[in-house]
Amino acid sequence: MQEKLKRGLGRGLDALLPPSEGGGKKIVEVETAKLKVSKNQPRSVIKEEKIDELVTSIKEHGILQPIIARPVGEGFYEIIAGERRWRAAQKAGLHTVPVIVKDIEDLKMFEIALVENIQREDLNPIELAKAYKALIDQFDLTQEELSAKIGKDRATIANTIRLLSLPPSVQKALYEDLITFGHAKAILSIKGKENQERALLEVIKKGLSVRETEKLSVAKEKKIEKSRKIDPDTQAAENEMKKKLGLKVSINRKGKGGVVKIFFSSEDDLNHIWEWICRFGGRRQ
Fold first, then answer.
1. Is the residue at 176 inside a domain?
2. Where in 90-197 does DSSP place strands (E)?
3. Is 87 helix (H, G, I), strand (E, B) or coil?
4. pTM of the prediction?
5. What residues are annotated to the active site?
6. Which domain holds residue 246?
7. Which residues lie below 8 Å from residue 71, measured CB to CB, with a gap of 6+?
8. How many CB atoms sit inside 10 A of residue 266's CB?
């Protein structure tokens, strides 16, 4: 695994970028045709109205903030930060753009692109989930390691990635802003893909709020577990485990004993459960 990077979100892009030779930032003019989008760009779609706003600004003031890119051979450059500026410059008819050229490894480049988009709130939840998963898969990271790199707690990362387990129709609705992240989380708590799809239709048809969707989720859960009775102490223990693990937990008492169920949706979740048990487990004497 590549050398671990320090926390990034709170530091901004400057702290993540390696210094230029000689100390200062060297800005060069690069042909727009010589720039290309990174395969590691976490944002998959840029809204056209955002580009149009930049086009107007660029025509009036030019590009005030240089694009950051790295050389990829034969005079071409891969964009690290500033894809929207590059697209707007092309639309505005510019043939060259100001660029800060940096030699950056793939992992740090992905981190920089992700940090820039998170700080600008450019990524929707589905894009963010895919970006997290891509970082984990491509660079063999655990959720704990990713948490340390981007300054997000592990439970937040796990819950975001879990959105990818939703049916495609629900993911599409979230991606297209037909529902919010809060709606998606509530739908995610409903068991069964068909039930989740039915809940989505109900949310859109009735224009349900997040709170109403949560109540819908609870109502469906109660129907499934209406025969299950749980005392306050057991409920408190269940809630505490959910909070610590960031996963769904169910405790069923049977006489003096019982069963604890921990639900996971990925290999990384399972590894996290195992690490948690090893850290805090062990039968009391």
1. yes
2. 96-101
3. helix
4. 0.53
5. 83
6. 232-280
7. 77, 101, 103
8. 16
Q: Which of 132, 119, 141 is nearest to 5 (CA)?
A: 141
The tokens describing 197, both together, are 């799809």
Tally the domains of the chain: 3
Q: What is the CA radius of gyration of the chain?
A: 23
Residue 160 belongs to some domain of the structure: no
Whether 263 and 249 have beta carbons less than 8 Å apart is answered as yes
Please state, in angstroms and as integers, the Cα–Cα distance from residue 70 to each residue in 46, 55, 99, 101, following that order: 21, 24, 9, 5
| Long-range contacts at 274-281 (CB < 8 A, ≥ 24 apart) | 276/244, 276/245
Residues 183 and 255 in one domain: no
Which residue is associated with the tokens 């959910």?
Answer: 242
Beta strands in the chain (DSSP E): 27-31, 35-37, 67-71, 77-81, 96-101, 249-254, 257-262
Integer Cα distance of 8 and 150 in angstroms: 5
One domain, residues 246 and 218: no
For tokens 């045709």, name the residue.
33
Which tokens sit at 6? 């320090």
Q: Could you tell me what percentage of the chain is helix, strand and coil, using 3-state DSSP and rounding each to the nearest 5?
A: 55, 15, 35
Block mean pLDDT (10 aa), the chain, length 285: 38 48 69 87 68 88 88 87 89 93 74 65 81 79 82 87 94 92 91 90 92 78 58 82 81 81 78 78 53
Q: Can you give the pLDDT at residue 257?
A: 81
The pLDDT score that the predictor gives to residue 171 is: 94
Half-sphere exposure at residue 112, Cβ-oriented, CA atoms within 13 angstroms: 24
Whether residue 239 is found in the same domain as residue 218 = no
CA 190 to centroid of chain Cα atoms: 21
**Packing angle of the helix pair 83-91, 48-61 (nearest 10 deg):** 70
* Domain termination site, one of 88, 103, 118: 103
Residues 272 and 218 in one domain: no
